[in-house]
Amino acid sequence: MRDREIFERFLREEEGIKESWRIFEIFEEERRKWQEELARLKEDRKIIQETVDALALRAIEIQEEIKQAQEALQEREERLIEEALPSIEAMHLHSVEVIGKGGKIIKAKPARDYYPEAYVARLFRELEELSGEKGLKERVLDLELENAKLKVELRDLLNEPQEPEETPSS
User: Fold this and answer.
1) From which residue to which does any coiled coil extend (predicted)?
2) Whole-angstrom distance, CA of residue 17 vs CA of residue 9
3) Whose CB among 2, 13, 92, 107 lies 3.0–4.6 Å from 113's, allowing a Cys bridge?
């Protein structure tokens, strides 16, 4: 469409053009405008590419932070469970008192492992502390959310229409 406008301008001014340098001047002016627009588009593309590169780098950094936070959280959970487990396993009851016929109290060996109530309560407290460690979990979730936002922004930037990188021939 732009070519048609240039040609129509040329036809309008044709009668007034007495010298060939006027024709050259019209086309040179349009060529200059085209070169300026091309330079602006190249600069815009360069800025977009730099932004995409920076976002991609930030996305990689965030993925690494997420991975490290998840590993730290997993290690902490495992450590807390390993610390609590031996103390609980070692404390099961070796004998129980059972009331037999006639109201007589008999000591017996339990068929299953039973644990004293105090130890079970301590285990639940430790597990609640473990599940209460929301700081790392929240950090991981925040990083995953930021990563998702960066991926969307990166996708949007990559999906913008690309302008051709042609150079005008003189």
Assistant:
1) 24-83, 133-160
2) 12
3) 92
Tally Cβ neighbours within 10 Å of residue 62: 20
Task: Classify residue 12 by its DSSP letter.
Answer: H
Q: Which two tokens stand for residue 131?
A: 């599940």
In a domain, 55, yes or no: yes
What's the domain range around 149?
Answer: 2-88+137-158
Taking the CA atoms of 89, 79, 138 and 147 in sequence, report the sign of the dihedral they define. Answer: negative
Could you tell me which of 96, 95, 94, 91 has the C-alpha nearest to residue 119? 91
Q: Considering the domain boundaries, does residue 61 fall inside one?
A: yes
Q: For residue 166, what are its two tokens?
A: 């042609």
**37 occurs within a structural domain:** yes
Spell out the alpha helix ranges (H) of 1-133.
Answer: 2-13, 20-89, 117-131
Note the pLDDT tens digit of each residue in 73-110. Answer: 889 888 877 777 666 555 555 666 777 788 888 777 76
167 φ/ψ angles, rounded to the nearest 5 degrees: -110, 135
